[in-house]
Design a protein that fits this description.
By secondary structure, the chain is α+β, with helices and mostly antiparallel strands. 17% of the residues lie in helices and 32% in strands. The strands form 2 sheets. It has a 4-stranded antiparallel beta sheet with strand order 1-2-5-4, with no helix packed on it. The protein is elongated and about 65 Å long. The model is unreliable at 1-35 (pLDDT under 50).
Length: 151
Amino acid sequence: MRKTVFFVAAAVIGATTLAGPAMAQNTSTAAAPSPAAGMVQLNVNTAINQTLAGKYVRDAPNVALAKCDGPSPKFASPVLTFANYTPGPFMGVDANISADVALKPDTAAGTYPLTVTCGSQTYSAQFTVPAAQVAKVPSGAAKAGDGSMAG
């Protein structure tokens, strides 16, 4: 009886050992291919908060990103200016070109286009601009810590 149990256990272990690598080979996945060229987006200058992609963030550095093939990439938008074009990846975003972005003065809140042209290819996306916050403290308002409230 003991020899039979040992033989069955050895057979099960052996079959599992032989099948294990074969299963691992059959279920392994190849590395996912990188996205094709054609991506363009506006993002706050961070790779951490991807919820800010496609939204201009006032009073923060913003960046235009693109993945495109072709010479001389050029970003365009009616409400943005672009500077410091930089080739190469950008902090965790699959892009091969980036540029610093500034919002043109007096831009109203809304949705605007962003395009990138690389050679003969043009790719487009949209981004939103939020309403401007009050940037100036009203005159005569109390200011914390300035002593105006001291009696």
